[in-house]
Structures are given as C-alpha cells and as structure tokens.
Amino acid sequence: MADGTDGIEDLGGVRGLAGLDFASVTPEEFAQIVKGLSGKEIAELAQDTELRGRVLAEVFTRMERQFRPDTAGPLKALIRWKITGSGDNEEAVYETDIADGTCTVREGRSDADPRVTLILADAEFLKLVSGNASPVAMFMTRKVKIAGDVALAAGLTRYFDIPKA
Questions:
Q1: Closest by Cα among 108, 100, 56 to 76
Q2: Are 86 and 120 in contact (CB under 8 A)?
Q3: Distance of CA 119 to CAs 13, 84, 100, 139, Å?
C-alpha cells in the first residue's frame, strides 16, 4: 500500500473495513477509504458497534500523532467531540486537550468545561477527519453543530495534519 492505492479498492466496503488492521493504514489511505464509502456503507459501519468503536478509537489515537504543536503555539483548549449514535449505538464522546504544545485524547466526558463542543453524526465525523468535507460547509449546512468558541472550531483543522483524499 505504499502508493496509497493498492488494496484500497479491494476492501469490499464495510465488510473489508472490518478486517482491516488500522495501524497499518496511513492517514492518506484512510482518507481514500472514507472517500470510497457510500452513505449507505457509512451508515452500516455506524450500526456495527464493534467496528464503529475501533474506527473512532483509531481516529482519536491518531489525533495525538497528527497534532501540529508548532501551529498551536500557546493554545490551551479542551475540545469535546460528540459523535451522535444511531440505532443501538449511543453517542460517543471524546475530548482532545491541547496545552503546552501537546494534544492529549481521552474517551468519555470529563468534568472540565470544554472551550468548544462539536456535535456531528458518524458520517460527517469521518468525512471531516479524513479531509473529505469542508468544515465551513458542514457548519453552514448544520451537519456539524458547535457550542462554545466558534472561532476556535473554525481553525481546528490547522492544528492537525489532515490527509487529503
């Protein structure tokens, strides 16, 4: 998969994704995978509790590695992510804490007050973090809801190396 395309087309949608070793997939390959999924396939992924959990955990783990401390500078902010569930899946909550040139991610809701909370469905979340959607367009079309510091939310993408599909 060194060129970012080998094997991606052969994943077989969500079934192929279920058997994927996420640790071996580059951010660019992940972006290509998400780009190739239909809305129906993303909905199917969101219904598979185990697969959804694996995908969300991998995405948030990668946020720490793809954080750009040079761009964040002295920024201190707690960002809460609420990925709305559907069917039997409950809402997933993660927090990214940016401070002192680091980004720390944790699953679940802390007692701390976030500077900004982003609320979005599974499909929109995957499209956003894989570089397959414009954050501004998503906000304008209400596919992402923001509570708190809208300016911080608008600039979040510059603090992370987001792949382009």
A1: 100
A2: no
A3: 26, 7, 26, 10
Q: Where are the domains of the chain?
A: 9-159
Q: Long-range CB contacts (< 8 A, 24+ apart) of 99-107?
A: 99/75, 100/76, 101/69, 101/72, 101/73, 102/67, 102/69, 103/63, 103/64, 103/67, 103/69, 103/72, 103/159, 104/64, 105/60, 105/61, 105/63, 105/64, 107/57, 107/60
Sign, CA dihedral 109-110-112-114, equals negative
**Cα–Cα distance, 74 to 89 (Å, whole number):** 37
Q: Fold for 9-159, please state it.
A: Nonspecific Lipid-transfer Protein; Chain A (3.30.1050)
pLDDT tens, 54-76? 889 988 999 999 999 999 999 99
Write the pLDDT tens digit of every residue in 106-162: 999 999 999 999 999 998 998 888 888 888 888 899 999 999 999 999 889 899 988
Q: pTM for the whole thing?
A: 0.84
- Taken as a whole, the chain contains a residue count of 165
Both tokens assigned to 55:
């995908």
